[in-house]
Design goal:
It is built from nine helices and no strands. The chain has helices at about 1-10, 15-25, 35-45, 50-55, 70-85, 90-105, 110-125, 125-130, 175-185. Helix 4 (about 50-55) packs across helix 5 (about 70-85) and helix 6 (about 90-105) packs antiparallel against helix 7 (about 110-125).
């Protein structure tokens, strides 16, 4: 970010090679991937028109009106999305937000976050949509889902029959009295059994 900020300050005098050399001489580069750093600076400068056009399409103001630090942050971020496909967009977003918090204006990271999200949705659509299956209102892009189909196994088929106007015969069901008696007690034949007379009463008329 600082290298692009320096280049943007005087583009005519600061060539990418000069900026990289000065930056490496003045900064501690022991923990920096110099090759990665050089590729970002060179790609940004060589493709600055396309990068600025992409960023401007998501702004609510002219790119020149942005704070120079915020402009440099968005340029680096856009460069990573376009040229460093091996770097997940979430990693690039986090780096942009952290730099904005350290060097940008107060709460400027919120604005950076909104623009960065739109850029990711446009430049890394497959990767972005995988993390946002329902779409993102900030990007204006939504994933249209097909309506869920109703299960076929539980469907009920209804058939309509014509009304039968023919006269119907009444049917009378006959019942056996013995069956009704047996059902009333719960034991068959219980009501038909006659009580036995004791032996002592047999001699009496």
């Amino acid at each position: 970010m600082q290298a692009l900020y320096q280049w943007d300050f005087d583009q005519a005098a600061n060539t990418p090679e000069l900026v990289i050399r000065q930056f490496c001489d003045m900064q501690n580069m022991e923990k920096v991937d110099v090759e990665y750093f050089e590729s970002l600076v060179n790609y940004s400068v060589e493709n600055i028109t396309a990068i600025d056009t992409e960023i401007s399409s998501h702004l609510d103001r002219d790119l020149a009106q942005l704070d120079p630090i915020e402009r440099a942050i968005l340029r680096v971020y856009c460069t990573e999305l376009k040229s460093q496909l091996g770097t997940p967009y979430k990693v690039a977003v986090n780096e942009a937000l952290e730099i904005s918090k350290d060097f940008g204006a107060d709460k400027g990271y919120r604005y950076i976050n909104g623009i960065a999200d739109k850029l990711a949705a446009n430049l890394r659509s497959l990767e972005y949509n995988a993390d946002h299956p329902s779409g993102n209102p900030l990007s204006g892009q939504t994933v249209v889902r097909e309506p869920a189909r109703k299960p076929q196994g539980n469907s009920v088929k209804v058939s309509v029959k014509e009304k039968d106007n023919s006269p119907q015969k009444s049917v009378v069901k006959k019942t056996d009295p013995k069956d009704s008696k047996s059902r009333s007690t719960g034991f068959k034949g219980h009501q038909d059994a006659k009580p036995k007379r004791p032996d002592s009463d047999r001699s009496k008329p």
